Amino acid sequence: MKVSIKHTTGMEFEATTEKNTFIVNPKGGISPIEYFSIGLISCSGTDMVAIPESQGLKVENLSIEADITRAEEMPKKFDEIHIIYTFDSTADATTATRWVQGSIETYCSTINTVRGVSEISYTIIYNGEKIADKKKIISGQASTDFGEIGGACES
After folding, report:
1. CA neighbor of 108 nearest in space, from 54, 21, 53, 42
2. Do residues 1 and 60 both lie within one domain?
3. Does residue 18 sit in the same domain as residue 36?
4. What is the pLDDT of residues 88-102, one digit of tens each?
5. Domain that holds residue 18
6. CA angle 18–19–23, rounded 5-degree value
7. Do residues 10 and 24 make contact, with C-beta atoms less than 8 angstroms apart?
8. Helices 93-102 & 32-54, crossing angle to 10 degrees?
9. Domain containing residue 96: CATH number
10. pTM score, two decimals?
């Protein structure tokens, strides 16, 4: 992967990836830390669509949010990341839980980049019922591997 930025004016930068170009403007738009945060949950979101599809199943009404606590002192790293998954499916609750665990523990490159640096936990609201609440991820202790799923973080 290759990415670059080019200063344009003020605090604005033109960012270029191998696939796209866009503007990063922390003063009048989305800040780099917001892009990074969205990347964490977007990566997991693609897994949450791809993993069930690889099993012939489907997720509906998927929403993912993250509550992130940052250190007060520079470099203000992410101390805690709590990810809340809300979705529906016809799969059983155990399977739904494994999809989330598979994303967090195996497939999501962005989450696994901060794993071991930030305390990561998750909540799952599945078919309107909370089936996991503030479960902590223990870095390097588990793996839920569904094989090749074709998620967004592969490229």
Report:
1. 42
2. no
3. no
4. 999 999 999 999 999
5. 1-30
6. 95
7. no
8. 130
9. 3.30.300.20
10. 0.86
